[in-house]
Amino acid sequence: MLEAAGIPTLIMTSAWDITRALGPPRAAFLHAPPGHQTGPPGDLLAQREIVQAALEAGISIEKPGEIVDLGIAWPRDPGWEERAYAAEHVETDPGGKPKRN
Amino acid sequence: MNRRQQSEPPDLAVGYMERTRKLYSSQPAYRWASFDPESEPPPFTPIAKPLSSLRIALIASGGVYRKEQEPFHFRNDTSQREIAIDSEIADLRVSHFGYDIKDAQLDPGCVLPLRALRELAAEGVIGSLVDPALSFMGGIYSTRLVGEEVAPRFLDFVLRQQADLAYLVPA
């Protein structure tokens, strides 16, 4: 809606498949755990690096719908990919519904 | 930085759609949006200025709010909070159900990068940062409400602030 009204947008994402399905005009992908879209807690340098990289990549997108992979590694918390929203790692209530945080 | 074909996720990228299907398999299947930018390109407004001249509005959905503001609730809360961009970590709180907020509570910069953007503005990497930032809680189940209530308010805000770019940060 913003883009159609003449406001360029850039969306950050750490969920490539969901973003691909939505098809926003410009997206910058960071491979990071949920809740860490702009970096690790307490690490301002990493947050600056991520934000700057996203903005620089984003404004250079020329093809509508492109997602740029920032290619920044997430070295912390090994194994987070297996746990993120994975059914076997989430408690469920007796009805099978995942419990909230 | 890697540019790749639209349909190829990076090798490491987590398959969230498949995982949430399994996680919520006891519920009716979620109807994901599907959009093919190859056959149906999204709207696209070219960016006419260099980054160092851009006035950037931050809009983030991680559920951050200032301590004197109301927390977000979890029943399709479509409200927004205006967050002064010089807010300190000690001034900020987080309420969201869709992700583990522990690290965001320690440092909201994980999901609302105020200080990073302030510094980039001070150093001339970006032109300027709109004050305030907009924060909302992205766990809204109703796409109708998002379209009818949330998005128009964002558009109004960005237009009033004369932003050159809306920088959207999910949690």
Total strands of chain B: 7
By secondary-structure content and strand pairing, the structural class of chain A works out as alpha/beta
Mean pLDDT of chain B: 89
Question: Any idea what the shape of chain A is?
Answer: globular
Report the C-alpha radius of gyration of chain B, rounded. Answer: 18 Å
Tally of separate helices of chain A = 3
Total domain count of chain A: 1
Helix content of chain A: 25-40%
- Order of helix and strand elements from N to C terminus of chain B: HEEEEHHEEHE
Overall mean pLDDT of chain A stands at: 88
Rg result of chain A = 16 Å
Tally the beta strands of chain A. 3
Cα-to-Cα separation, first versus last residue of chain A: 31 Å
Oligomer: heterodimer
Largest binding interface between chains: A-B, 69 and 83 residues
Please state how the strands of the largest beta sheet of chain A are arranged side by side. 1-2-3
Class derived from helix and strand content of chain B: alpha/beta
State the helical fraction of chain B. 10-25%
Structure, described:
The complex is a heterodimer of chains A (101) and B (171). With 101 residues, chain A is α/β, with parallel strands linked by helices. Chain A has one domain (3-89). In chain A, 27% of the residues lie in helices and 13% in strands. Chain A is built from 3 helices and 3 strands; from the N terminus they run βαβαβα. Chain A has helices spanning 16-22, 44-59, 80-83; strands spanning 9-13, 26-29, 66-69. In chain A, strands 1-2-3 form a 3-stranded parallel beta sheet, with helices on both faces. In chain A, strand 2 (26-29), helix 2 (44-59) and strand 3 form a beta-alpha-beta unit. The mean pLDDT of chain A is 88. Chain B is α/β, with parallel strands linked by helices and 171 residues long. Chain B has helices at 16-23, 102-106, 114-122, 143-160; strands at 55-60, 64-66, 80-83, 92-94, 128-129, 133-136, 165-169. In chain B, strands 1, 3, 5, 6 and 7 form a 5-stranded mixed beta sheet that branches. A two-stranded antiparallel ribbon of chain B has the order 2-4. The longest helix of chain B has 18 residues, at 143-160. The mean pLDDT of chain B is 89. At the A-B interface, strand 1, helix 1, helix 2 and strand 3 of A face helix 1, helix 2, helix 3, helix 4 and strand 7 of B. Strand 1 (9-13) of chain A pairs parallel with strand 7 of chain B, so a sheet runs across the interface.
